[in-house]
Every structure is written in C-alpha cells, then in structure tokens.
Specification:
The structure is a homodimer.
Chain A (H helix, E strand, L loop, with lengths): L9 H11 L6 H12 L6 H11 L5 H13 L4 E3 L7 E3 L6 E5 L5 E4 L17 E12 L1 H7 L1
Helix pairs in contact in A: 2-3, 2-4, 3-4
Bound molecules: manganese (II) ion (MN) (2 copies) and zinc ion (2 copies).
The site of one zinc ion has 8 residues of chain A, from helix 5.
The first copy, chain A, binds a DNA duplex through helix 4.
Amino acid sequence: MNAVATKPPPENDLNERLAHSGLRLTPQRQQVHEVLREKMDHPTADQVFLRAKNKMPEISMATVYNCLDALVKCGMVRQVTLDRGATRFCPNMQDHSHFYCDECGSVYDILQTISPADAGIRLPRGFRLKNIETNLHGLCPDCAAKAK
Amino acid sequence: MNAVATKPPPENDLNERLAHSGLRLTPQRQQVHEVLREKMDHPTADQVFLRAKNKMPEISMATVYNCLDALVKCGMVRQVTLDRGATRFCPNMQDHSHFYCDECGSVYDILQTISPADAGIRLPRGFRLKNIETNLHGLCPDCAAKAK
DNA sequence: TCAAGATTTAGAATTATTCTAAATAGACGG
DNA sequence: CCGTCTATTTAGAATAATTCTAAATCTTGA
Ligand SMILES: [Mn+2]
Ligand SMILES: [Mn+2]
Ligand SMILES: [Zn+2]
Ligand SMILES: [Zn+2]
C-alpha cells in the first residue's frame, strides 16, 4: 500500500478529485488549497481567508467556507476539530494523527496512527466504520520546556 | 491499574474531585452532572441546559457552561468535539472512544480493551503526551441498515 | 457577625458558521 | 462567437455557539 509509487503529482489530483465529485476547479478553490499547502499549520477558516486575500484580494469569507467544504468533500483536505474553537483544516491526506498542545493551541502532524485492532476496539454489530481519527493531547516541545 | 478495586462510589467522587481542584460542590454542578449521567447520549450544552431546567428551573445557560467547565476541569466529564457543531459532553470517564454517525449525528461509547497509550505511539522528542482521543466515523446500525 | 472569595445569573458581546439572493463566470451546443 | 444554463462567488444578514461582564447571592471561616 505504501511501496507502490503510482501517486500522481498532487496538483493534477486537485482537478481530478474535484471533477470526480462533480465539482469544478476554480481559481478560488485552487488558491485555498495552495494556502493550505504553503503552511501546513492547520489554520482556521478565518486564517485561510486572511492568507488567501494576499494573492486574491476579492475573495470572500463565504467563498473560503465554500471552498474548504468542496475540498473536504472531494477528499483533498481534512477537517480537524480539537476543542471548542474554530475548526482547523489540513491538506495532508496521508494517514496521520494530530497532536494538539493544550497550552498554546498549536497542532502538529504525527505520522503514526493506531489501527482499531491495536487500540483494542471492537465495534458492536451493525456499525459501519468509515475512518478513524486520533487526536493526541498534551504539551508541544516549547510549552513542555517552559512548564519545567 | 485496573485490577485493584479502590474506586469509591461515583457520587462521593464528585464532591472529592471538585474539592481536589479547589472547586465547591454546588446544587447546580450536582444537577448538571446528574443530567449527564441520566442519559448518556452526549448532549450539547444547550441540551444539558434544557434538561437541567426541569428539576431546577432557575438555572441559567451561563451556569451550565460554568458547571460543565468545572466538571471537565476536575476530571468528572469529558468534552467531545466531533464536527463543526456544538461540543458534546460525556460523563463516562472509563477509557473509551466515540463512534460518530456521519448520517444522523448520534454518538456512541465504544469500549476499548487496550488503553490507546499502550498502543505504541511514538512521539518526536520534546512532546509531552497527556491523553489520546479516538473518534470513529461511520454509520450507526440504524443508518447503515437504511443505506442498504 | 462580617469579610473574602466563589458561584450564579441575565444579558450583552463576541466568535464561528450558515444562509440568502443577486452577480458573475465558465462550459456547452449551435 | 453567441446565448443559455448552471455552478460558483459574493456581500451581507442571520443564526448558532460560546464567552464575557458586572451585579446579586451564597459559603466559608475568622
Ligand atoms: Mn494534519
Ligand atoms: Mn462517551
Ligand atoms: Zn504549545
Ligand atoms: Zn445514524
């Protein structure tokens, strides 16, 4: 699953994946996606809006939400909800989990996931599992150092 | 860790745990906690408010938020954030994960046989892990049946 | 009994997200 | 190219979720 390198360059992917979901590739969707890939710090919709405005000053907040929803729907972006604050967005579609610093709120990709089997999870009859989300909570290196 | 049965009855626990965090046991906190234990369907703050009002008509929304925060802080309640909607609350402090039905939004407790901490996540140097949260997404039995 | 501090409360304020309706863009058939 | 059709974008209003504020109330413990 990991050994065969048939993955097309991610940019083509965007076009195709949108099409596959009956969605068009628009400058705005492209821009929002680029913003996410540029700095993979899991920004909120609001932060995406501010960053996208630099290259595309006319873009609106509603469009950013629309684009993010489109990108999530077609599987190019993941939604990350970690606390009561705004939802964050992640363009890394590799299997990974998120480390959330309870102190400063920063989010890190952790390239390791727990399979349900490893976690000892057994679903009762009838449930249909689609995907698993693992969120690690604690202190980031900076905050851990300060805490000492 | 699991074998020694020194756990006091959960109601005493509430008093003690609050005290341990420098918080008082108040009728409102008790009521909010009771509401959560009565129907463990992971209600939102709003739903907790409505249910609590039945026995305690003067309780306010602000108090419900305050109480929920207090209960979370002292470790009697878990916060569950699953999508862009309102945060949900869970009074089950056993090690378990949550199944979220993407179709109808219902949430189920899924018991784990192995603590995820033991499942072998390896963090880069410097990170201090406090706890792991596992969210399962898919279809609940009802929705899975309808989907066929 | 009193002072200090914690908690509750109503309502205002803020933040996050969704909705609405009109304008625009772009694909497609002719 | 032209006109039509539909998807998308847009501004702003509306709604939903949460937090804040300041005053009232309660509790605790000198
Ligand atoms: Mn990520
Ligand atoms: Mn639960
Ligand atoms: Zn941090
Ligand atoms: Zn369902």
